[in-house]
Structures are given as structure tokens and as C-alpha cells.
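Hi R.,

Here's the input for the carboxymethyl coenzyme *A complex you asked about:
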Amino acid sequence: MSNTATLEINGEKHEFPLVVGTENEIGINIKTLRGVTGGVTTIDPGYKNTGACESGITFLDGEKGILRYRGYSIEDLADKADFLEVAYLLIFGELPSKDQLDKFHSDIKAQSVVDDDVKKIIDAFPKAAHPMGVLSSLTSALTAFNPSSVNVDSEEDMYKTVVKILGKFPVLVAWAMRKKQGLPLNYGSNSLGYVENVLKMMFEKPNEEYVQNPIIVNALDKLLILHADHEQNCSTSTVRIVGSSHAGLFASISSGISALWGPLHGGANQAVLEMLEAIKEDGGDTKKYMGKAKDKEDPFRLMGFGHRVYKNFDPRAKIIKVAADEVLADLGVEDPILDIAKGLEKEALKDDYFVKRKLYPNVDFYSGIIYRAMGIPTEMFTVMFALGRLPGWISQWREMRLRKEPIGRPRQIYTGENYRAFKDIAKR
Ligand code: CMC
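And here is the predicted structure with carboxymethyl coenzyme *A in place:
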């Protein structure tokens, strides 16, 4: 195989080196394109064909439905690891030893108090505020309470920032929900596991002890692992590009939360449940909604279907579908929404429109059903996604800074007006 690609523009040939990844993915390195061609650029809306970086964190093969963190399959990790181990793996590159994991957890716990003045900020939000907006603002506010900038050349400094956000973020997640429910803003307990503590902080009532349910703890642990990273998706690219200006970790992650919120990205889990509810209220006629999804005049899309990268199946959706059945059975919950979801999936998988476009259920299609069975309110679903994605964002931000990547600054092709003389206001 040749190790260059040739581009011919106006009869002039230019050679560009190929970059081959460890899984034999091939990229064309066009770093010198503008220089050698006198300013020619590429155009690729939505970056469908553009690799923004080289990365050693997550590998996915959309055709084969493969997803691996640092080489480990998502199936193995969801089955055998816990969320904190996966967070360590993503951020530092290797599975931790027992001692490393214990130290990591105790360093996180040592950082799990949020400045009490943050409560005043929360007080100022209306109760109706969406918790994603609240979470993004509070994460940004952490910058104000932790102003020192990170020396990325110091391992120790980087580590301190990482454990700080992993400690404080679950508190903000829980407070975003408790604010909405009018519950006091409390703390969990450092004697608990990371995920158990999240649940206690979210659900504990002021007048009764919170009793952990191992089925819920395990299900949440698994969901967080499945969401922990997904290479250069919209929110992760946002975190990397904001961080590329040397903005701090908290500010970069706050931007990632905003990107995740949209219904085409993480917001889809909330949108799926609202869609399934609407179908149920409307008499359960799935065919009607399939028709709407296919109608190009109708803006309706089948939420939880389709993926930019997966064109065969989403391996996370496979695991979550099985987990949804198990969790509902274990908790003794019967949810008619699950039947509607299964019906929709069945119809879509044999429908020409969906088959031709390779549209399959994605990670968000079944996750909301599990969250709902756990008692998590619909508006919190995307917040739970953010909690799971946090280690991915951290690891990608860290990798980008350690590799000393340049500031992200795409080009454009200008299609506006050519030069015009200024017209006085009286003559317009
Ligand atoms: N329902 C109906 N039609 C769809 C859907 C859908 N959910 N998704 C894609 N299509 C059609 C789309 O109209 C287009 O048709 P045509 O070729 O006739 O113009 C074709 O399929 C290709 O779609 P696209 O929008 O060009 O594909 P994309 O890679 O830009 O978008 C997507 C991927 C995930 C944004 C899109 O499939 C979508 O909007 N899905 C629904 C929202 C959703 O579930 N998002 C969660 C994604 S997974 C988790 C995450 O990333 O956070």
C-alpha cells in the first residue's frame, strides 16, 4: 500500500502522507494543504469525514459495532468492572491495581465538598429551570471557586484537578435534582462507594434513612460505564476545542454539558421517553409515529434511532436492552412504555426507510426506561448521561493538553457578499 495520497488541483499534484492507526484506520494528513496549494481548504459540514486528532483512548468500529476503552471491550467492562475503575482506566490508560483504585477513591472523597456559597447560586435559579442548565452553570461556577490554573506539565497538578472535579460533580448533579424537588441540599457519605453515594445524595429524604438497593446500584454503575466515553462526539469535541484555548478543565466541561444537552446528542434520552409517553397517550399507535418519522415534511424523528458512526448496531444499546428487561423484572416494575419501545424497534428493523439508512436503536433508546424504573425524573436523564461521560471528557481534555495540541480553529469557505461601498443610512 502506498503511504501517501495524491491530490490534483488545477493540474498540479500534491502528495500527502497517510496516518495509519493501531486498528489500521487510515487518515490523510493534510496539515500542509493550505501551504502547498496557496490557501485551498477542505469543506466537510458536520465533520463527517474529518479526524480532529489522533487519540489513544477509545476505539469504535461503526460497521462492526465494536466499542473499546483503552483496548478493553465495552461488554467486558460493563460486566466485570465498576464505574470508578473505568474512570481511572480512561483517564490514566491502565486498569488500576487495588491500591491505586483505593487511593484514587479516597483522593476523590477528600474533594467531595462544594463551597457552601454555591448554594446561593442554586437559590437564584427558578425551580422550573432544566437541571442541565443548572449543572452547566454550576460546573462553570466551580472555576470561580477554584481559580488556580493547572500546570499541565505537572502530573501532580493534573491529578489534583481531575480528582477535584470527580469529587464535586456528583454533588452538583444531586443538587440540580434536589433543587427541582424542593429538597435540602445535602451531602452523601464518604463511607460509601462512588455510585452508592450518588444515589444517596440524590434520593435521601430529610426524615428517613436512605436504604441502598443493590439492583439499582448495579444498574446505574453499568449505565455510567456504557456512557463513559465515545471518542470525538459533539460534546467531547466541544470539551477538546474549548480546552485547546487553554481554558481550564471545569470551564471546558461546562461547555461539554451544554453540547450534550441537545436532543440530537445526550438530550435524546429525555426526548425518547417523552416520545414513548406521547405514543402511549395517543393510543399506542406506533405505525402513525413511524409514518411521521419517514415523512420529510414532518420534523419528527424517531428519537433514540440512528447514529453518526454506528451503521449496524450500537453495542451499548444491545447491553442496555437486556439490562432494561432485567432491571424491570428485578424491581418488579411493569412499564407499558417498554412494550411500546420494543414494538417500535421491531417495526423499524424491518422497515425499508430505516433499513436503507442503517438506522438502529442507539444508547439512548432504552436507557430512559431503566432510569425511570429507578425513580429518576425524566429531566434528569441527560444529567445522568453527563455524570457517566465525565471521565471521558476529563481523559480527552487531559490527552489534548498533554499532547500540546494547537488551538482548534477551523476554516470556512466564504459565500457572502463581495466588497460593497458603505451606504449612508438616509440612502438605504
Ligand atoms: N428518524 C428518522 N429519520 C432519521 C433518523 C431518525 N431518528 N435519523 C436519521 N434519519 C434519516 C435522515 O433524515 C437522513 O435521511 P435522508 O438520507 O433521506 O436525508 C438519514 O437518515 C441520515 O441522517 P443524518 O441526520 O444525515 O445522519 P447524522 O449522522 O447527521 O445524524 C443522528 C445522526 C444521531 C443525529 C440522527 O440519526 C438523529 O437525529 N437521531 C435521533 C436523535 C438521537 O437519537 N440522538 C442520539 C444519538 S446517540 C447518543 C449520543 O450521541 O449522544
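One thing worth noting: The longest strand covers residues 12-20.

Cheers,
M.
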